[in-house]
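Students often ask why inverse folding is considered easier than folding. One informal answer: many sequences map to the same fold, so there is more than one right answer. In these notes we will look at a single instance of the problem. The structure comes first.
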């Protein structure tokens, strides 16, 4: 894994690689204005001519290095205290020198995850004022370009550290920025480096190495990715089997009568236009988030069907699964990427052909973005057949849920963001990781195992078994309810909690009370940053040097009372008693709200029945909570078995 990481990292160098390197190169994170981690051995990496001997120097320390047969070199410098600015120099055998200037030694944090970590400073509460106040020469920012990759092929993007200014900070992660400001406020003599490697709408499997995905139940998808590298058309057909199994389970269709096999069994009507369906003027689509079938029949000559053909659909929001003549030919999850599918020989034939697209929208605008003139078939001779008119649509049952995503697909694929956005960092020393992700994994069981495997794999890459992970629990989002119910959102948070409970170097930062019921992206990232910083200090120096939020430790029963123990003393705000506790038996219908009372580091629940076996807290998409510790950190969502 390390070698693959290095290969990607070199391609992100601040210089362009060439076959004969007159000047040695540094890998991506080692640019002007970089912050290097204090108190840790520094592994400096780069590229030079094969076999070349080099000297690497920083802050009065120098060490030799030698490039291997591939041109890769690495050098280890001793741990340094906070300080700077310094100059990092790499001297080649011919005396050529590459220098990176204004290097500070301080603390470096990597912030990663999906949209709530990606949400920029400008969109936080009082965003304009926060951006205006962003100037801090000793707070340095590095934004990793959003670039998925299936292999360790070179990336063309150039990255560079920048001092925090209104310009550089405006589109940088707000939660990460506010955490960094807390660090700077606490110790103004220590520079802080923040790395923003984020992408909205992404599942955790995209951020995991392929081996970690295989080890946590994803072997089937990983096998499809391996096949895709050799034969994309065969991989699409294989994924089509998975997609078909999903559809039959959702729809109840028997094999052989699915829409892509017999589309005429569906009710069809004209597709109004290649624009977002919210703008069609139809009440049933005004706020619609769900699926839609679209089809277009095409008559081709033998010559048109025989050569290489590209199907272009324009942008589809959010996901499409596209079939031609009953065979899956493409699937993409992106609200901004144009769909251009290369069709394998034999996909089309002379005469009538059918294009069938299943569109799934999860949030905000949905459907075909167009424009209509981008929808076409392009043939081997360069001619094109416009397809911007003549489409029909059919709305599936509302019980049809979110389809599986193609495992090779860009931002949703197996390991694609790990390869493209984490591996390029190589062994760059960091103090810790702040991770805010999980929305895209709701209702996908096993998140605790995936999160644990991801943390282990990143620690292996960075060479630190004790690397701290700060895990932000999902913020509440969804319609408030008045009675107990099942919640995939709550179950995901509980799996985050379980992963953290099994890891001595991880902390859960509960954000359940920061959410807004009608906004998936709550703007109060200031409080997220504050809580992240408190947890970071706690993991670094123990509870006396920082604060971790209260965690449930266990539940026991005595007669008609259940006692839930916590890691800290608690208090109920705005009331004499905490709310949101449930006692449950073996089925979800058995759950009911019960009265609770705080007693030091425990909560006592009354009204237990003989069949009760579980206790749940805040088990809802958007729960109302009032149970906090003395530091105003909330108790997280949880479910625990009751020890009898």
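Output (designed amino acids):
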């Amino acid at each position: 894994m390390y070698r693959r990481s290095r290969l990607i990292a070199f391609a992100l160098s601040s210089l362009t690689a060439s076959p004969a390197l007159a000047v040695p190169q540094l890998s991506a994170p080692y640019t002007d204005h970089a912050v290097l981690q204090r108190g840790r051995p520094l592994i400096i990496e780069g590229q030079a001519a094969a076999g070349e001997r080099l000297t690497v120097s920083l802050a009065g320390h120098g060490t030799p290095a030698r490039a291997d047969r591939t041109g890769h070199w690495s050098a280890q410098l001793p741990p340094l205290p906070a300080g700077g600015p310094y100059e990092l120099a790499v001297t080649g055998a011919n005396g050529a020198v590459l220098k990176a200037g204004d290097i500070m030694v301080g603390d470096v944090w990597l912030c990663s995850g999906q949209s709530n970590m990606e949400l920029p400073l400008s969109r936080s509460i009082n965003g304009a004022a926060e951006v205006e106040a962003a100037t801090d020469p000793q707070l340095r920012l590095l934004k990793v370009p959003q670039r998925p990759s299936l292999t360790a092929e070179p990336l063309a993007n150039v990255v560079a550290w920048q001092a925090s200014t209104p310009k550089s900070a405006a589109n940088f992660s707000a939660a990460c920025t506010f955490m960094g400001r807390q660090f700077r406020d606490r110790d103004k003599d220590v520079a802080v480096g923040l790395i923003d490697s984020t992408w909205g709408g992404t599942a955790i499997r995209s951020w995991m190495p392929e081996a970690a995905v295989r080890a946590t139940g994803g072997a089937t998808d990983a096998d499809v990715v391996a096949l895709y590298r050799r034969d994309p058309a065969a991989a699409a057909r294989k994924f089509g089997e998975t997609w078909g199994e999903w559809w039959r389970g959702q729809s109840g269709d028997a094999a052989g009568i699915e829409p892509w096999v017999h589309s005429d069994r569906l009710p069809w009507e004209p597709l109004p236009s290649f624009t977002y369906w919210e703008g069609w003027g139809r009440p049933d689509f005004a706020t619609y988030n769900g699926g839609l079938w679209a089809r277009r029949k095409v008559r081709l000559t033998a010559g048109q069907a025989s050569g290489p053909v590209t199907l272009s659909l324009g942008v589809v929001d959010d996901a499409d699964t596209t079939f031609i003549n009953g065979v899956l030919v493409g699937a993409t999850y992106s609200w901004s990427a144009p769909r251009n599918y290369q069709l394998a020989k034999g996909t089309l034939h002379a005469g009538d052909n059918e294009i069938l697209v299943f569109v799934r929208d999860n949030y905000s605008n949905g459907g075909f973005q167009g424009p209509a003139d981008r929808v076409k078939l392009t043939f081997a001779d360069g001619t094109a057949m416009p397809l911007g008119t003549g489409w029909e649509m059919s709305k599936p049952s509302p019980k049809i849920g979110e389809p599986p995503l193609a495992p090779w697909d860009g931002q949703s694929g197996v390991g694609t963001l790990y390869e493209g956005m984490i591996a390029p960092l190589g062994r760059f020393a960091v103090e810790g990781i702040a991770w805010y992700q999980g929305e895209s994994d709701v209702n996908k069981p096993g998140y605790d195992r995936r999160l644990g495997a991801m943390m282990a794999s990143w620690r292996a890459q960075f060479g630190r078994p004790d690397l701290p992970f700060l895990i932000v629990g999902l913020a509440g989002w969804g319609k408030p309810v008045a009675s107990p119910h099942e919640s995939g959102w709550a179950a995901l948070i509980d799996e985050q909690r379980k992963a953290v409970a099994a890891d001595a170097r991880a902390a859960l930062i509960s954000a359940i009370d920061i959410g807004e019921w009608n906004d998936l992206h709550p703007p109060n990232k200031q409080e997220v940053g504050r809580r992240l910083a408190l947890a970071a200090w706690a993991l670094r120096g123990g509870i006396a040097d920082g604060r971790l939020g209260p965690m449930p430790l266990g539940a026991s029963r005595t007669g008609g009372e259940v006692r839930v123990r916590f890691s800290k003393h608690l208090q109920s705000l705005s009331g004499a008693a905490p709310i949101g506790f449930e006692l449950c038996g073996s089925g979800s219908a058995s759950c009911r709200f019960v009265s609770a009372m705080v007693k030091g580091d425990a909560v006592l629940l009354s009204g237990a029945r003989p069949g009760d076996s579980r206790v749940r807290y805040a088990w809802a998409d958007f729960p109302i909570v009032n149970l906090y510790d003395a530091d105003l950190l909330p108790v997280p969502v949880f479910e625990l078995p009751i020890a009898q």
